[in-house]
Amino acid sequence: MSKLCIVFDRLRSEEKMLQKEASDLGCDTSMLDAKITQINTDSKKDDYDLGDVVLERCVSYFRGLHFTASLEFMDVPTINSYDVANICGNKMIMTLRLKKHNIPSPKTYFSFSSESSLENLEKVGYPLVIKPIIGSWGRGVMPLKDKDTAEAVMEIRDINDGPHDRIYYLQELIHRPPRDIRIITVGDEPIAAMYRKSANGFKTNIALGADPEICEITKEMEDIAVKASKAMGGGILGIDMMEDEKKGLVVHEVNNTVEFKGLARVAKRNIPKAMVEYALSCIRK
Amino acid sequence: MNCPECDATLNIPDDASVGEIVSCPDCGADFEIASKDGSNVVLKQAESVGEDWGE
Q1: How far apart are the first and last CA of chain B?
Q2: Where is pLDDT greater, at B54 or A45?
Q3: pTM score over 0.90
Q4: How many whole angstroms separate alpha carbon A216 and alpha carbon A242?
Q5: ipTM of the assembly?
Q6: Domains and CATH numbers, chain A
C-alpha cells in the first residue's frame, strides 16, 4: 500500500482535510512536525516515517523550503519541489518567470536601494504598489500614492534593514473590480477557483477577511493558469489573477503552499482529495 | 485543563491532534498541543506569526 507523509509546522484544518482524504482513499498516512525533526548529512529516508511521497505543508516558507531540500537530499519525492517553492516564494523571481514565459502580468519595477526605488517612482509616476519579495497574506503590500508616503515607507525599510528589504518590488496599480481570482492547480490542471472580494481597501487576501465566492473557470482562465503552473514547474499551486480593465486577465502571484479551507467548502471538486491523488501519482515506480 | 498564562479553563476537543493550536478564550494566548495521550495533554507556547508565514 502507498504511504503519504504530510510535513507540517502548524496543524491547520487543511492538513487535517488532507489526512482524512488520504485515509478515505485507503492510503496509509504519517504526519511529521518539521519543528521537532532533526536531519543530518548522513540521514537516510528510512530513518524517518516519510512514506513514498511527501506533501510539504509548512506555514513558514523558509522552514518548508529548507525542509524540502533535506527531503530531496534523501531522494524523497516532495510536493512541491524545492525549485518550485524557491521560485514561488520570492515575488521577484516568480514575476520574472511569469514574464519570461509570456504570461500576462502587471508591469513590475525592481530597484536595489531605497534611493534608486524613489528615483524609479519619480520616473514612472505614482501610484505604484510596493510589495515585500518574501511574505504572504498581504503583509507589507501598500499603494504608494505620493512622494511623502513613498519616502516614509522607504525610511521604514531602511530602519528595518532585513536582507530582503534591500530588494524593492514596485508594481503598477491594476484598475480592476474590487476582487481578484484564485485558481488552484493540481498537476497543471485547474481544479477550483474563487473570487476574493476585498473586505476593506484594495487587498483581497482571505487572511484579511476578503469574501470568497465561487468562480466558474473560463477557457481563458484555464489557459493562463495552466501556462503559469507549467512556468513555475508544476505541482500544487494557487494562481492569483486580476481583471485589468484594459489588458484583461493578469497573473500577479503564484503561491506555493496553497491554503484552501474556504474554497473547499464551496468548490464542486474535492480539493484535498485531488491533492492527495496527485501526490500518490508522483510516487516513483 | 487551565491556561498556563491566565489560569482560565481551556476546552480541548477530544479529537484535537498534536500540532494543533488551542487559544485561551480569556487572555487570547495561543498554545500548541505538544503531546496527547487520552485526556493527558501537554501544551507548549505556540510560535508567533513570522515574516515568512503564509502561502
Answers
A1: 33
A2: A45
A3: yes
A4: 15
A5: 0.84
A6: 3-86 (3.40.50.20), 108-172 (3.30.1490.20), 175-256 (3.30.470.20)
